[in-house]
Amino acid sequence: MTSKLFKVDETEANIRLDVFLKGIYEEYSRTQIQTLIKSGQVLINGKTSKPSACINIDDKIECLSFGDKNDILAEDIPIRTVYENDNFAIINKPSGMLTHPTSKEKTGTLVNALLYKYKDNLSDINGSFRPGIIHRLDRNTSGLIIIAKNNSAHTK
User: Fold this and answer.
1) Which residues of 74-103 are buried (b: 16+ CB within 10 A; e: fewer)?
2) Which residues of the chain have pLDDT under 50?
3) pLDDT for position 103
4) Residue 72 DSSP class
5) pLDDT at 67
6) Are 140 and 78 in contact (CB under 8 A)?
7) What is the model's pLDDT at position 1?
C-alpha cells in the first residue's frame, strides 16, 4: 500500500474529514474510514486528527494505509472542450457521466476520457485516481469542469 496525498480545494472545504474521505474511497464504509483516522492512518497537514475535524482550503490530507486502486484505463470517450491552454482545460461534462471512477464503476468516466486525451499531461495533486480534477460534478449534473494540466496550475 502506498501513501495518497490530496489537497483540499474550495469545493471541499468546511466538511468533515471522514465525509471528505468517504467521497474518495467509496468502497470503504464511513465507520471503516473513521477507524483508520482514529488509528493515525490519516494526517491533515502532517498531524493526526479526529474524524469530525473540519477541513480547510489548501489542507493536505495524507492517507497512509488505504488500499491501492486498480489502474484507470484511458478510454476514447468524446468530451467537449470549451476552452484550453497550456495549464487548464474547461470541459463540458454531460449529465450521466461520473467525474472519476469508483470502486464499482471504473470505466466511462470523465477521468477515463481525460487520460486518453491528455495522457500524462494532468496534475497529480489529487492522486492517481483523480488526475487533473480540481472539482467534481455529480453524475446527474452537467456543466463546466476545470481540469488542471500540471501541478503548478492546480495549486493556483
Assistant:
1) eeebebeeeeeeeebbebebeeebbbbbbe
2) 1, 68-70
3) 64
4) P
5) 52
6) no
7) 40
DSSP 66: P
Which residue from 37, 100, 109, 123 is spatially nearest to 77, judged by alpha carbons?
Answer: 109
Its pTM stands at 0.59
Q: Taking the CA of residue 45 as centre, how many other CA atoms within 13 Å lie in the half-sphere pointing to its CB?
A: 8
- Continuous H helices in 5-125: 17-24, 30-38, 110-118
Q: Which residue spans within 31-87 are E strands per DSSP?
A: 42-44, 47-48, 60-63, 80-84
Nine-digit cell at 21? 474521505
Q: Residues with catalytic annotation?
A: 138
Angle value at C-alpha 63, between 7 and 51, nearest 5 degrees: 90
The amino acid at residue 142 is: S
Q: Enter the DSSP assignment of 133.
A: B
Q: Cell 480540481 identifies what position?
A: 134
R_g of the chain computed on alpha carbons: 15
pLDDT of residue 50: 95
